[in-house]
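Class prep. Protein, please:
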Amino acid sequence: MKILSIALVRTGSDLNEPVPLTVANDLSSFGFFQRQSVKEMLLFLTKTFLKRTEPNQRQSVDHEGYTVHCHVRSDGLAGAVITDQEYPARVAFSLLAQLLDDFVTQVGDSWKTVTVPESITFAPCGEYLTKYQDPASADKITKIQKDLDETTQILHKTIDSVLERGVKLDNLVDKSNDLSAQSKLFYKQAKKTNSCCVVQ
């Protein structure tokens, strides 16, 4: 899971093209000579999809292995996060909502008259890019889900490891002193009934 770009953009019906206010990119996974082209493509995708996102709307657009998560506020301030397709959309939109709020708190309404691209310096944009690279560490719900998934894997591994040791459940049932003859017969009949009725 990886975030490639975060951009805060001025949009509105009075503009021909959205104006990028501040942009942060992580292009470390690309070769040095590819980075400028990739940077231009990320900005192009950001502007294109934000232009097609209505005010008060959020949307995620998949494009060639990447997802552009767009959020346009009612005042025209917009944000886009470009990630790989594995990155959770809920975390991306949480990042955008928090970043847009922080931006307005720090910059105020001065962004509403900006016409020069990338003319606002906003350090938290880069900080969020680094912080949210691992969604589980930045987002509590994702972290809890990851912990639950790991616990489930451990339980499955435990059951599998018992069966891998050559101990079959059938042998355990036969050898058990805790089960009556009737329970053993029930187990064998249930197993036989289940094996003849397998639907594929």
In short: The mean pLDDT is 78. The two ends are 35 Å apart (CA to CA). Residues 140-164 form the longest helix (25 residues).
